[in-house]
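Handout, section B. The chain below has 315 residues.
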Amino acid sequence: MDAMTDEPLAAAPPLAPPEAIDLRAEFVTSGLAEVLDELDTDLVGLGPVKGRLREIGALLLVDRARARFGLQAVSPTLHMSFTGNPGTGKTTVALRMAQILHRLGYVRKGHLVTVTRDDLVGQYIGHTAPKTKEILKKAMGGVLFIDEAYYLYRPENERDYGQEAIEILLQVMENQRDDLVVILAGYADRMERFFTANPGFRSRVAHHIDFPDYSGGELEAIGGRILGQMNYRLSPAAQEAFHRYVALRMVQPHFANGRSVRNALDRARLRQANRLFAGDKPVTADDLSTIEAEDILASRVFSGGIDSYPPLPAR
């Protein structure tokens, strides 16, 4: 009401749609460009994966632009499947995906909740539903990342409660897709069998993204980034030793891409620390920062052993 006349105030006229929208400018101002640049910085390689994220980002930008012109449409289905071997960056990309969706207004919070079967499935009657619903409540407004999702389905066990969790997930993925994005992750072959046995998931997952293994050169670059972030470096001889290490480790069992490289460098730092501690002279900053060849060559990989902990489950 107008305070002077007691007349009702006129409603503000609706905003007129813009004549045109500069999508390139929207790409920058939305923060999408920043997130994708950070992804390039954080992850070596993965060109196909980064390309798919850019495509999804473009779809969402266009969808948002259409809404500003009044070209309303059904909200896009954003549930995803990430397939690939361990250590290929699936969790990191899921985190960036949550940021992209938040920047573009498709989720309220933009946080990532990472779970496995044990977080969702109970061990007795009446235990699964509360566990699953509690996780979903925590994930609402963001992204739920279910690692090794195929373990939810165990048809060989008649008393398994995974099917109850699956049914709850399917209902939420359909009815609350405007407030939650679910990413199912795991080995490609097992995920394919999981989708075949659970067609409800396949029909709700719009984006299937495969994460390739890293090449030897990419793994060495990952190692260099890991060490650089901790103010370490490889001596020239250690670089050659690490090159040999990567080539040998890639063909051994339980290889986990970037995860195996990180574990190897953690052990190299342990050996370096013990080597320096056992020495009989003061150490310099250069000594403390340099990984030498002997710190790499002490790995069991060079004697045919498996230099990995903890071991990954056999496929």
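Note. The first strand starts at residue 80 and ends at 84. Compare this with the example in section A.
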